[in-house]
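Re: Re: token formats

Sure, here are both.
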Amino acid sequence: MRILSGATVALRRFLDVVLIALIVIVLFGVLLGKLVPLTGRQALIVGGSSMEPAIPLGAAIVVGPVEAADLKVGDVVSLRAGDDRALFTHRITEVVDRPDGRWVRTKGDANDSADPTLVHSSAVVGRVQVSLPYAGYLLALLSVPMGVLFLLGIAATLLAAVWLLESLELEKIERVTVTLDGDDDTLLGEPIATRAMSSRTLAADTGLAASARLTVAQQLAVSRELRRRRNAWQPESGRPNARGRD
């Protein structure tokens, strides 16, 4: 029984940690998706593996604005190119200055060859400032209603499990109440002082001493039981309205 009680407490604490971690992760995703744009930057999701291992698939990147004159070889930039103006993130391998402005050639770190054409600096959305592996999956999950409902479902399940385990612990603590009115005659003829009752002794008698240290809830339950036993052994004359007037 003590092993089962200890496992219940350990499981509840583990679920508490998981629930707190989930809340922190969701708050981080919300801040990344909503707060970063307020700083003039963009949070983008990497949907390809052309920049691995520097930027893995599913990463979230924070892209900040950059002037054309500040572009240099080695910069990782996000830019739009092609007829469909697709957005991709590659590293600059060449910078070419022409009368109509600065042009750059880019290449994915995992690609064998550079991109086929030069791209004008006006197509550069920004330079990558921060890369967060796997954070893109969180942003993608929070960007759709089904993803939000999924996270809410996980949180609700964890809350229900924690509540159930706490209910089991409280139910066990309530069993500390010892019946003194008829069913347990062995306690009725024995003064509370002769038992030298302490909180740990009462806890051991009631099966709560599963560990060397009682929880706060268990200590409160033991204290209530001690007070109840003392009151049961007080002289009748010491209790107000204990007897009717003669």
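Second one below.
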Amino acid sequence: MRKCLLLGLIALIAAHGAAVAQEWPSKQPIHVIISNTPGSALDVTARIVFDQVGQQVGQTIVAENRAGAANVIGIAAVAKAEPDGYTVLVTTSGIAIAPYTHKTLPYDTLRDLRAVMPLGNLTNVMITPAGRFKSLKDFIAAAKSKPNGLLYASLGPGSTGNMSAERLGLSAGFKATQVPFKGTAEGVTDLAAGRVDFFFTPITAALGLIRENKVEALAIGSSSRSSLMPELPTTVEAGYPDSDYNFWIGVFVPAATPEPIAARLHDEIQKALQVQEVKDRLGKFGAEPMNMTLAQFDAYFKKELEINEKLVKAANITPQ
């Protein structure tokens, strides 16, 4: 009898979960909080994907930019939101860095947020001034011969450029000096002028200068090659294990969001990412697919937190 009751309870819970997923979304709008400014790669990616998701579920989606404090403002807004599937966060891999570069945060990353689905890995390329280094091997030799003598551009401590440079340095055994810039364009401009020695930058920001031979691309800093420059190997392929660093865009919801709703949201995003128009538009931004299940992205995100904790310590970044 007890066994029958237990089986009946399990069946009832499963049926309720399926009903919840089927009912969502039953009201509108769905608020998509984008943790960066309008026109940024994050903003454009989020709008491309969620425009398609809105069409699929037949509901209005309102995209809201909540920029500031290195994505923290937007992340906090979702972390404290009602966990009903109607407030969704789109942010960058910086969410996995913030716990170690901030003294305090208005949320607990693992307790308050749940990873749902990555929208893509925005490929970073390592560029140097034209003619300065013959290859990545040549660059590494120069960097080792002059400890802290080479300069690299970044958007500040904890940025992808900073983390990528430190990750390669740890793998290859060299240290270089960081030169922070306000924006990617300024960093690329100074590098092209020869005032800094290298820069890990989004590939789309440098592609024109690479093709015009005004800067040299030595390697891809991400974990996989770019479809925009498929001939260029990654730093790992070039012989430097654990030197890759990814700048990804991902979707999160409040941690208490019911499993069926998180799963349905994941499935709708995955479906949207398979639409050819969406794939083509994201490809123009250098976004490479990261096809993961709900569980896989959760595990990936937790691993990213572990990697960044060690990397921030190794880079001697002081939490602000």
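Residues 118 and 250 are 4 Å apart (CA to CA). The chain is about 45% helix and 20% strand.
- S.
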